[in-house]
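User: Hey, quick favor. My workstation is busy. Could you predict this chain's structure for me?
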Amino acid sequence: MRINKDSWLLTKPIAHRGLWGGDVIENSLVAYENAAKNGYPIEIDIYSSSDGVLFSFHDALLKRMTGADGYIYNKTAKELKELRLKESDEKIPTFDEVLSLVNGRVPLLIEFKNQPDKTFVDKAVERLKSYDGEFAVQSFNPMIIKKIKKLAPEFIRGILATKSHCKKEKAFYRYVLKNMPFNFLIKPDFISYSYVDLPLPKSKTKNIPVITWTVTNQQIAEKVKPYAKNIIFEKFTPIK
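Assistant: No problem, here it is.
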C-alpha cells in the first residue's frame, strides 16, 4: 500500500468544496481559504472551459450555482469568469487560482470530472507536477484514472464509486460505478465510496483503504467509522 496509515488522506476530515455555510458559499475561494486556515484538507472538482482553461467547479450544469444555462465545458473562460456564485461577488475559481491560494498549506483531494474533451487530464497533470503541496486525485471514470496512472504513476490516485447515486446512468456505467471492475487495471491507492452504501465487502476492497462521502453530520460520521478510514464532509464541523 502506497498510503501511510498516518497519511492526511486517512486521518484528516476533508472539506467538500471547501469549508462553507452561512455567508460562505461552496466552491468559492472564500470557502477554500476558510478550510485552509482551519487546517482541513480540501476536496475540489475540475473541469475545462471550451478553450482549455481549468476551473474548480462541481456541477456540469451551471444553473444551480450561477443561474446561467448550459454546461461549464461548453463555455469559454471569459464567459465563465463573468459569472458569479449564488448572486454573490464570488466567481468560479480557476484551478490555478485555487492552487495559488492554498499554496501547500493543506492537502487537496482533486476530482477529475467527466467531460467530452479528455485532454484536460493532460493539462491538469502537467500543472500538478509543478505544484509544491500534498494532493491526491480521484474520479468516477476509471479511464481517467488509467490515464493519470500512465502520465504520473507517482500520483496517489483513487476511484470514486457508489450504488445509490447512479440510477440515471446507462446500464454499463451503473455496473462500473457499483462494482469497480477495472480496479485491477488502474490499481487505485484508495476507494472513495458513498457513505449510504457502506460497508463494502472485503472482496471489493482487497485491503484498499476506503474513504467516504459526503457526510453531513457528526452522527453519520460516527456511524461510518467502522467502515471507512476518513470522511469527506460538508454542512457541519467534524469533531477532531
